Recover the amino acids of this structure.
């Protein structure tokens, strides 16, 4: 009997405040048979929503293309403001191998998703991660540099400028009718990667957001911290204190407990306590067990000791 393949998708779209728009976009996932909607997390300050679902390749592709088309229809990037970097209405469409599927097959699927989305909507597409056209484009940060407004203007200014032709070529979408991004929908990043990111927030007992920013600077890879961590220090208006908000790109290289201990230790230097933490969206069981072993100092612990793991093979 041929094994069924499963893919994990964790897309995000640029709306986290208008409930009716969020529900309408997420409905495009709910409608597709063969897809399991795990969660969706609207974030007011970021003004984006992260969606997580699992399914077989073809239903996942259908759900992603339909969701992205609806995002492009309902979100106008000319009026979008938020604290999280973004370049499009449907900002990202990342997929990851989940069960009995290879990264090579996911790369092929990501290319199909990008091409079908562009054909259906004409929304420009960038390919990233393992599906990227070059090394630079593997990173979302490179593609998003300047965000929607900066990338839109850069492409328009440099398209017919012979002196800056190389800069234009380096930054233009992989798929685009006119070599630019859309004024209303921006562009969408389609990617395939071996491991999904873990979104993790650590709350601090202070109203001084500068402390959170300094800790985030020391934590994130580009400024000298952990190579697989991206972090910002911000204030969520809806709750007390400030937050170090991070994306852990690979928890096998930088475990969640290591990031927690770093933030806790740095906060103590300022006389500040960690008041709580929050996972945004799902996390792999292996990453939870890794921190479980660390904090309880377990010796000889095996994953198979967790009874629920045996249900996965039944």
């Amino acid at each position: 009997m041929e094994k069924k393949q499963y893919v994990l998708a964790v897309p995000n779209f640029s709306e986290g405040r208008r409930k009716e728009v969020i529900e309408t976009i997420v409905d495009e996932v709910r409608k597709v048979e063969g897809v399991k909607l795990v969660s969706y997390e609207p974030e007011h300050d970021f003004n984006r929503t992260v969606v997580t679902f699992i399914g077989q390749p073809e239903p996942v592709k259908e759900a992603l293309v339909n969701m992205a088309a609806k995002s492009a229809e309902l979100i106008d990037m000319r009026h979008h403001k938020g604290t999280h970097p973004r370049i499009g209405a449907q900002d990202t469409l990342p997929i990851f191998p989940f069960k009995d599927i290879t990264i090579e097959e996911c790369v092929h699927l990501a290319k199909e998703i990008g091409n079908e989305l562009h054909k259906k909507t004409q929304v420009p597409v960038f390919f990233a991660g393992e599906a990227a056209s070059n090394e630079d484009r593997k990173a979302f940060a490179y593609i998003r540099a300047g965000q929607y407004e900066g990338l839109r203007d850069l492409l328009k200014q440099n398209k017919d400028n012979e002196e800056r032709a190389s800069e234009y070529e380096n930054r233009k979408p992989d798929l685009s009718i006119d070599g630019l991004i859309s004024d209303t929908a921006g562009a969408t990043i389609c990617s395939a990667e071996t491991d999904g990111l873990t979104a993790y927030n650590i709350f601090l007992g202070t109203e001084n957001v500068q402390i959170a920013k300094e800790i985030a600077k020391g934590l994130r890879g580009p400024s000298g911290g952990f190579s697989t961590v991206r972090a910002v220090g911000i204030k969520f208006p809806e709750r007390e204190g400030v937050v170090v908000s991070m994306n852990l790109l690979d928890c096998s290289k930088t475990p969640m407990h290591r990031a927690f201990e770093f933030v806790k230790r740095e906060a103590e230097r300022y006389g500040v306590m960690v008041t709580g933490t929050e996972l945004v969206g799902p996390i792999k069981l292996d990453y939870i067990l890794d921190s479980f072993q660390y904090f309880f100092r377990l010796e000889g612990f095996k994953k198979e000791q967790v009874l629920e793991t045996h249900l996965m093979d039944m």
User: Anything to note?
Assistant: DSSP finds nine helices and eleven strands in the chain. The first helix runs from residue 19 to 30. The radius of gyration is 20 Å.
